[in-house]
Amino acid sequence: MIFHANMMAAARALSLAPRPTPAALQLCDIPVARMEQPGTLTVRLARGVPMSGGAVFDMAAPRAVFLVHRGTRTDLRPRLSPCIARGALNEAMAWETTLALDQPGDHLLVAVPEPPWDADARVHVQQIATARVRLGPSGSDWATPLGLAAEIVPDPGASDLAPGGMLTGRVLAEGRPVPCAALEIECVQADALAGRGMPGGGWILATADQSGCFRVRLPHAGLWAVAARGVGAKQWHATRPLRQDAVLWVRVTNASSDCRGSSPARTPWVRRTTANHCD
Known about the structure:
Blueprint: H1 5-12, E1 25-29, E2 34-35, E3 39-49, E4 55-57, E5 64-69, E6 72-75, E7 81-86, E8 91-101, E9 105-112, E10 117-118, E11 123-135, E12 151-154, E13 165-173, E14 176-177, E15 182-187, E16 190-191, E17 196-197, E18 203-207, E19 213-218, E20 222-228, E21 236-237, E22 240-252, E23 270-274
Parallel strand pairs: 2-11, 11-22, 18-23
Antiparallel strand pairs: 1-3, 3-4, 3-8, 5-6, 5-9, 7-8, 9-11, 10-11, 12-13, 13-14, 13-19, 15-18, 15-20, 16-17, 20-22, 21-22
């Protein structure tokens, strides 16, 4: 992606911002960012607030779950099994399945959940979530738009991010850019599937440019959620209002740490960055 000079300058401008109110996220948990050899992985889907104490909520069977590899989609919904997500103070229904990966390249996991009712916001919220695991040294589908109702598509250089690396990408709705989309980026502080705390912390508020493009530096290792709320075009679920969000899960790993990207605990911080002057 090419950024004009004024756009890059604005993207580097950081300022303190109030922390957004914690909200539930659709979690796509792939335990590693990369596999060197073919093998199997257990992946889990859960709904909760993994960044703020690990509260979890029951997740209905998703509308769609599929894996994309070199343009081929594999339906995973028939393979889903119910499991339990353990929050800091509660438990809730979640889902899991096993991926058998034997073809090199990027494998993209997509979850399209049923839209639960948010009583506080008085709206159904559907969060379409994506995550990736790479088998072998090179990728394939990481930067390919899928035409989802709401999605965040990272650029090719966003793979294999190390602490301090730059995540760049686009916010799309049905393949079309979403101008000036607001993004909330936060590092997981609690494992929503095991009920235990994790090192990390911190959040970033970002704004995409008129083409839906954004760039943001992820300062330390961990599992990061990039959420763009309300970017989907569909506004109704039956007779009730609907909000469609896009959620991208990214693992930042230390070269000296294991593949889960663990890191020492960090002091909470907040930053705001914009890709250009969207009002």
